[in-house]
Task: structure prediction
Amino acid sequence: MPSVAAHYYSRSVSSVRSIFRSSEAVLILLAVAIGLSAGVVTILLHRASHGLQSLLYGIGTDSLSASDTVPFVRLLALPVGGLLLGLGSRAALRRWRTPVDIVEANALHGGVVPWRDTALVCAQTLLSNGVGASVGLEAAYGQAGGGLASVIGEWLKLRRNDLRTLLGAGAGAAIGAAFSAPLAGAFYAFEIVLGAYTPAAIAPVGAACIAAVLLVRLLGFEAYLTALPGARAITTVDYLLYAALGVCCAAIAIGIMRAVTWIEARVRSLPIPDAYRPAIGGIFLIPLAMVTPQALSAGHGALHLDLGAEVTLRFLAIVLCVKIAASSVSLGFGFRGGLFFASLFIGSLVGQLFCGVESQIAGLPPLDPSDSAIIGMAAMGVAIIGAPMTMSMLVLETTHDFALTGVALVAGLCAATLVRETFGFSFSTWRLHTRGENIRSARDVGWVRNLTAGRMMQRSPDTIAAGASVEEFRRRFPLGSTGRVVVSDEAGRYLGIIETTKAFDPQVDSDAPIATLASTDDPTLSPADDVRAVMGAFDVSEAPYLAVIDDQGTLLGTLSERFVRRRYTEEVEKAQRDLFGE
Result:
């Protein structure tokens, strides 16, 4: 009986999987379910973080960053929490590798995120934010929504592109739920997680984000940003002024990203074990928090507090410097989290400072501080996160002002252009770049790395021993039988490639060793070289054939340039078909 039950279970699972693989409508329904789950997970993570902050700092229903003051004793939660984070992370990494985040998963691994990686990233981010480090929970939201979608998609054995789409839908739904902004969540999925606007992904991603937002609104979850209507009409001059604000935000964003990396590099160069670095970072955060509690956590309460109050430029400048320092220290010393909301808060401060300075310049029309804060939020978010449409939709959904959204888009594009021209990365891809991954977006490039020389090579090429004579070569490989032959020694090590026609030259001594005719100047390939590295080797050497060898020089196979370029073209065309859902 157990075997019969197992048989029917296996058949049922196979039938379910085939339905999800073959029907786009069913995939959309699955995306809706993922979106609802992502909304629930977002609420749970938010409640858990706020509960931990309430326990440690006694803030009740208020936001930690909106506190007037925080007692020094309670600030000891920062180094203690950092110590727990460091020790826990060390124990986890001893058992598993460095966790894969959703951007890396979609760019390199076809949307596959192991559940352990999702659990670890969420736990690290939750603890970091919960003890008050200057990081946001958005990394945990996106990782949880995308990770859940990946696990379900893998169980259903979805195709690579469908799995990537589902991961983007889950991550976008979680972000949309946090901000109660379905359009912003959808564009987050397209720009950050998927790396492209794809026709095949529009319906699943949109359905997931709408489902998540409807659920959190139904449950009464308070959005990160409440409606902030535009203050006044937008003029042509405003576009130019806010474009300048976008440039300012880009310069500050580049400074923040480089500061995080610089601090991280300096900390790693010190003889301090990784497990104790967050605790030391927590100690450095204490004096910053004593200057102003707005340095703590992501800054939700502080953003609303500063927007609704009459504050001086001096105060704004102090908060800006302290917040940038706190975020840089938090991430540089190993606290886990993102800069999504922190970038919005920093941008709002820059926008208000820009407005205050601009109002002191004679001949320029005065700007509204609230509008400037909103545009600064969008521009700084674009500069750091790298998602102009996401931030534009966030402005639209929080202000309901199309004119202000247009200005936000202009400022965001100016910021994005400057960052890409002078820096080249968003924060997420920059962090991957510092770990050795040369990717600029979540666009699927994993197939390039999977298409290696070892997978493409001809495994049993024609070979001949180096000691064989030319006469023996002519006897074994008559003209027309093969174009090229690999020469190797008795141990199978590669020595060169010889063209068959060269051995039949009448001027060649038939008793001479065949190795004297072999071409040894051409480079060799490693089986791990991806297709782009292989094509680069062909371009440099201008050779039609190259050998693939291992670390000991042993011949593994050969590759022809014509075959490699044909395989590359086939994979590019396949990727394009997947992109458009064909």
Summary: The chain has 25 helices and five strands. The two ends are 44 Å apart (CA to CA).
